[in-house]
Amino acid sequence: MRISYSSLETYKQCPQKYKFQEIDKRKAPKTKEAIFGTAIHSALQFMFSRDPLFPTLSEVVEHFRDKFMEKCLLPEADAARYCDVGEKMLANFYKKNPPWNFNVIDLESHFEVAVVDEIYNVSHTLAGKIDRIDKLSDGSYEIIDYKTNRRLPSQNDTDKNQQLAVYQLGIKKRWPHVDPSKVKLSLYFLRAEEKISTFRSPEALAHAENEILSQVRIIEEKTQENDFPPVPSALCDWCGYKPICPAWRHLYEKEKKPEIQSAINEFLELKREIDERKKKLISLASIVREYMQIEKLERVFGDMGSILQSRQERASWDSEKVREILSGSNILDSVMTVDPQKLSFIVRSLPDEIQEKLKKEARTVKTFVVLKVSRKKEKAPE
Ligand code: SF4
């Protein structure tokens, strides 16, 4: 199977999007953010390509504008707004990172390496593209990925970032002689003008490789079952497949069936009414419960019937504690695979002292007061 960081990320975000993109190979129109990102990346690649001199800032900005305007179909005012943001980003970057200060050894560097799944004895191809690779003055390397988004991750998130791990795996397989501790991995956030860097130990890299392989196994299994559910989220607004996605397509249908529309609308109205009534019921129950508590009443009466207080207990179990107390006993497996209600029954068959220990240390019991209603029977006509 051929995989890349972006395909793994797409699967994590939404399996249906992954299917459109990687299996059905359906082309989706690029969003304006994607066009903007591509134009910025292209301008940064141009900025570090010496021919024979490095381009000036205005040449870099012009390159960005050309690339962006070539693909964007936005109204003039919106396009101008994007151009302004891009220009500012590039100007700040250029000022802080004059290209002649860096020893760039590769740009938009493609890699394709084999990753072997020893459990299933299959080999997968891990492919990707690194924005920039620098050789630093101490002989080490720096892998840089540019980001145009606003959100700045924490150092901890960067240390676990899968994209950077994929890039380092690419470098490791391509240049096995390079010591992983001599490869600095950086994310450069252009809007915030911040660079966050990390390193990966050989153990962390092996862990990342295992994680990738287990994700690939899941994807392969789901491919066999053709199981790619859509996962609607805020990110759908940036998904080019929205008009054909089963979670959104109906919204885009021009001719909707009137009888189905009326059933949908009636359902929604009924659901709203039920929800409102449920809310009202909760608020009335709390008034009645409070009154009964203050007046120390167990039953109250209305015109249509009575309301009786009844107490119910619900137990929940701390699975770690249960495991600890029962470790070594032959019922541990059956206990840990049943649900909490069944667990309460099983516990009753245990020796008294274990029962006591479990109840004391691993069980939490909450008592609920339930109001039970009995309605007045209609009187038979005389
Ligand atoms: S629109 Fe949303 S739910 Fe549909 S494929 Fe795209 S990301 Fe998934």
What's the short version?
With 382 residues, the protein is α+β, with helices and mostly antiparallel strands. Helices cover 49% and strands 21% of the residues.
Distance between the termini: 81 Å
Could you name the CATH topology of the largest domain?
Answer: Lambda Exonuclease, Chain A
Mean pLDDT: 90
DSSP helix fraction = 40-55%
Helix count equals: 14
CATH architectural category of the largest domain: Alpha-Beta Complex
The general outline is: extended
Protein name: PD-(D/E)XK endonuclease-like domain-containing protein
InterPro entries: PDDEXK-like_dom_sf, PDDEXK_AddAB-type, Restrct_endonuc-II-like
Pfam family, one: PDDEXK_1
Domain PD-(D/E)XK endonuclease-like: 2-246
Mind explaining what this structure looks like?
It is a single chain. The protein has 382 residues and is of the alpha+beta class. It has helices at residues 5-13, 15-23, 32-47, 57-71, 76-96, 155-160, 162-174, 202-225, 249-252, 258-295, 319-326, 332-336, 340-347, 352-361; strands spanning 2-4, 104-117, 122-135, 141-147, 183-189, 194-198, 299-301, 305-317, 363-375. Helices cover 49% and strands 21% of the residues. The protein has two domains: 2-225, Lambda Exonuclease, Chain A (Alpha-Beta Complex), CATH 3.90.320; 302-382, no CATH class. The strands form two sheets. Strands 1, 2, 3, 4, 5 and 6 form a six-stranded mixed β-sheet that branches. A three-stranded antiparallel β-sheet has the order 7-8-9. The structure holds iron/sulfur cluster. Iron/sulfur cluster binds at residues 14, 16-17, 230-232, 235-236, 239, 241-242, 245, 247-248.
